[in-house]
């Protein structure tokens, strides 16, 4: 089916929903998608929901998920729920579900066969507790990407890097040219970089065995010593004074040629698209930091807090169905830089980065769980704090950081 036909199909289904939605409702939607690429993607969801006759009332929360999650959860617990909210796959909503505050989507999921049409299975598993479905996955995000500006390397007389080691080798010459080898934002992006280095340097199996299997011998051994040595290389490429406050600001330094590279999830692709840059021509996107192409099964899901108004409940169910319609999945994920949840969509408009991700996803063997699917949020926050401290403190040796990391893994409770 062609893209135009899909759009036409969406319009027809939207007309059906609009006719059916005699008692349409406003749906306040909270999320933390506020960068240029994210805002463009959100607009696609809003347009699709509005086409059903309901109204998407945007409730964007500035900042990262770490900022937004406590606000979202507090509102729901405090009796002031939104109509729908973005969260990540994992355990963030478990307590809300146990408290009976979230809408059960099982009947809709069964009717529309979500288990058959959405992939990979881990995403639906994250939405399922005791056989009941509580959220709808809308995309597959992966964090293991290195983004490089081709012109920067050409102007410096350097071959564009094919992997992390090439970037490390090119760093001295880039510095001589007044170019930041690696742009970096403060806070969680530091943790993301280091986790990406764990996956790239130690390997996927070792990463999962430590985070999910709590393998302390592995965490304290030579494979992870190589990781913290690689992090030491990374922090030598970054001047703390040049670190930005937000992840998209660090990506923008690569887009504008002020930095050569950035390590960030595939959502960075949306920023390059907004800048009208073409992968393979203007920039490169290297999954697995170019060492081994892999994907983790992160992403975004939507939960729907219970509402006493049956008209709102009906609108919530319409929205849940709308977000995973084929044409909506295409329109949203092309703007977001993420992968669609369904394999039966027309991706003729997909760029090379999305095609790389889909190829890895189709292989299956190189797909692994997101960190929050393997270890509790508190332990992840402790790990992120450690990584941030290590990155900012030259006096902390790789061995010191590794020892502290092992202690956090040792104390992490089982999921």
Summarize the topology.
Blueprint: H1 3-20, E1 26-31, H2 36-51, E2 55-60, H3 65-77, E3 84-87, H4 94-98, H5 106-111, H6 114-117, H7 121-126, E4 128-129, E5 132-133, E6 135-141, E7 145-149, H8 150-155, H9 164-176, E8 180-182, H10 188-202, H11 204-211, H12 216-219, H13 222-236, H14 247-255, E9 259-263, H15 268-274, E10 283-287, E11 295-303, H16 310-323, H17 326-336, H18 352-363, E12 367-369, H19 377-392, H20 398-411
Parallel strand pairs: 1-2, 1-3, 8-9, 11-12
Antiparallel strand pairs: 3-11, 4-5, 6-11, 7-9, 7-10
Helix pairs in contact: 2-15, 2-17, 10-11, 10-13, 10-19, 13-20, 19-20
**CATH class descriptor name of the largest domain:** Alpha Beta
**Structural Rg:** 21 Å
Can you tell me the CATH topology of the largest domain?
D-Maltodextrin-Binding Protein, domain 2
Q: What is the helix tally?
A: 20
The main pleated sheet reads as: 6 strands, mixed
Count of beta strands: 12
Instruction: State the helicity in percent bands.
Output: 40-55%
Distance between the termini: 42 Å
Percent of residues in beta strands?
Answer: 5-15%
Q: Which stretches are poorly predicted, pLDDT < 50 over at least 5 residues?
A: 1-21
Under CATH, the homologous superfamily of the largest domain reads Periplasmic binding protein-like II
Net shape: globular
CATH-level-2 architecture of the largest domain: 3-Layer(aba) Sandwich
| Overall pLDDT metric | 91
How many discrete structural domains?
A: 2
What structural category characterises the helix and strand content?
Answer: alpha/beta
